[in-house]
Structures are given as structure tokens and as C-alpha cells.
Design goal:
Layout (H helix, E strand, L loop, with lengths): L15 E2 L1 H4 L18 E11 L2 E6 L5 E14 L3 E2 L11 E9 L2 E9 L1 E11 L2 E6 L4 E4 L1 H10 L10 E8 L6 E8 L2
Parallel strand pairs: 4-7, 10-12
Antiparallel strand pairs: 1-8, 2-3, 2-6, 3-4, 4-5, 6-7, 8-9, 8-11, 9-10, 11-12
């Protein structure tokens, strides 16, 4: 996956992985500059796309419905897809983090991304992919590319069946299906 300003790995906090929960954090491997200091981070629910780079969201703190115009150089990251070029992949009801200044006409966003959660559990194989089973019984798909990325960067001894791992996950609000986007050895 491409280098990101605000990465999934860097956004851990109280079970929710998002810039909203923990503030703007940069991944150690990212060389991108931090967003402008005058930008604000908004927690929102995605309502609908109103164009390739335009969306309507409902702000969590005020329940206000706001139009979001996404800047041409904005960072967009969606669910298990990672970095995307437009908002067409976002799902109605999905939690999103939007960075940008709010005005009477809406928000011009420099960042627009899904909210991710953290989970941990035992890993087992499931056909060609792996599954992480949490203590609460949640079943999280772990795609091969996530395993390869983890093995290359953080999981030094290979995937061990039944071992405990932590993951950054995205849950599709329409289906309830969870997918790991980052996998780490549990500490």
C-alpha cells in the first residue's frame, strides 16, 4: 500500500483507530508533512457521495449534515481498499474522519478516511486467507496481502496458528464483515 499522511497503524486509541480518537499522528515511516495547523478534524458518518470528490456527511458532535468537497491533493483512504482516488467506495453509515476547515458552505477536506478499530485474537487459516478470532467471537478476515505486509515489516517469526495477534480492522457497516488492514504480533 502507498505511503500515507495519516496511517491506519498510527491511529490507535481506546479501541477505535482514527484521527478523531487520538489526534493527528504520523506513522514513523511517513515522510509527508503534517497537515496545515489551521485544519480541523471532524468525526462524521458518511451519508452519500455527491460526485467523485464530493460527499455529504453528518457530523457526530452536532448531528449537522454537511457537504464535503475533497481537495484535489487530499488523502483518501477507504476501508480494506486503502488509498483511493474518489469517494465512490464509501458506504452509507460508515464512520469517517474528515480534516478541513468548516465554513457556511461546508468543508473543504485535505483528508477523508474510514475510521478503523483495533482488535486482537488468535489467528487460524481459512482456505487461502487467515482469520483472526477475537475473545468476543468476532471473526476478522486477514487477507494474504496483509499477512505478507506484516511478515515483511513486523511479524518476524511467521504466522503461527493459534498465536495471538493485534490488528487494525475495518468493519463494513452494511454487512458487518470485518477485514484486517494491518496485522502485528501481540505484545
Amino acid at each position: 500500500m502507498a505511503s500515507r499522511k495519516l496511517t491506519r497503524r498510527a491511529l490507535f486509541g481506546t479501541g477505535v483507530v482514527s484521527a478523531v480518537a487520538v489526534g493527528a499522528a504520523l506513522d514513523e515511516s511517513s515522510s509527508a508533512a503534517q497537515p496545515a495547523s489551521d485544519s480541523t478534524l471532524h468525526a462524521a458518518k458518511f451519508i452519500k457521495a455527491s460526485g467523485a470528490r464530493s460527499a455529504v456527511v453528518q457530523l457526530v458532535d452536532t448531528a449537522e449534515t454537511v457537504k464535503v468537497e475533497i481537495d484535489s491533493t487530499a488523502f483518501l483512504s477507504h476501508g480494506a481498499d486503502g488509498v483511493v482516488g474518489d469517494v465512490s467506495s464509501f458506504v452509507s453509515g460508515e464512520e469517517v474522519a474528515v480534516r478541513g476547515m468548516k465554513s457556511a458552505t461546508g468543508i473543504v477536506a485535505s483528508e477523508f478516511q474510514s475510521v478503523y478499530q483495533s482488535a486482537s485474537g488468535a489467528v487460524s487459516s481459512d482456505r487461502s486467507d487467515y482469520v483472526l478470532m477475537t475473545a468476543s467471537g468476532q471473526r476478522v478476515q486477514v487477507p494474504q496481502e496483509v499477512v505478507r505486509e506484516g511478515l515483511g515489516q513486523r511479524i518476524h517469526s511467521g504466522i503461527r496458528q493459534g498465536a495471538t495477534y493485534s490488528a487494525t480492522i475495518w468493519t463494513d457497516p452494511g454487512t458487518g464483515s470485518a477485514t484486517a488492514v494491518v496485522l502485528n504480533e501481540a505484545s
